[in-house]
Amino acid sequence: GGPRPLPGQEVSVKVLGALEDGGLVERDPRLIFVPGHGDVVQALELGVPTMQPGEVSFFLAAFPYAYGRPGSREPDVPPEAPLLFEVTLLEVRDGPDPQPLLPAVRLRLGSQRRERGNFHFARGDFAAALRSYRLSLRALDGPTTAPHGPEEEEELREQRVKCLNNCAAAELKLGRAEEALAACEAALRISPDNGRALLRRGQLLAEQGRDAEAALVLRRALELDPASKVIHTELSRLAKRQSPLSST
């Protein structure tokens, strides 16, 4: 009984997932997610919003709506495996994003969504990965019920930088170099000496023909990681392009 979940609301469900041979691969007594945020397999994203609190449903999911063509290591799902889910909708409540939360809860929510983005990225669904990374940033930047302690503030900063670097990687996979560059620059505003963001920014500037800027950024990256073969290669390529002999 009760209303079905509305867009943006958070749900709690009990989930059992089994293979065709009956082997149980997934068991979660209280899985919490917001439908539409990409935090769970698509069978649950699509199915749970049709349910009412207290209802038990069975969803037979073809592999595109479960763990996809490659399957999964954790849980252990073979490639192209259909799954049968038994789902009990336990609770529906307003979503957590606009609400003030404890810093530790924001960190957990941000980490959960970033890991889901990594799940999508590894399977080549870069648009879904980018959506999850953006949702992670929104969770990390949301209001809190108490001031951050020094350790929490540092962890929030580190998670934001990781998310922004991941956003840049996903944007590049989607062919959006300008958006990728903007994500790198946002990461560097938080952590000016982040090696990953410096390298990618240098590469993107070089691709745009902004060689002088690229060289400065890459030299800074090399100061932080003198042994990096990738940075040495990028700087050598720039030097050859800028050499007068290269045009003769």
From TrEMBL:
GO terms for cellular component: cytosol; endomembrane system; membrane; mitochondrial envelope. TPR repeats lie at residues 195-228. GO terms for molecular function: peptidyl-prolyl cis-trans isomerase activity; protein folding chaperone. It comes from the Eukaryota. It holds the Pfam family TPR_19. It catalyses: [protein]-peptidylproline (omega=180) = [protein]-peptidylproline (omega=0). Residues 8-93 form the PPIase FKBP-type domain. Gene3D superfamilies: 3.10.50.40, Tetratricopeptide repeat domain. This is peptidylprolyl isomerase. GO terms for biological process: negative regulation of apoptotic process. It comes from Pteruthius melanotis. Keywords: Isomerase, Repeat, Rotamase, TPR repeat. The gene is Fkbp8_0. Its EC number is 5.2.1.8.
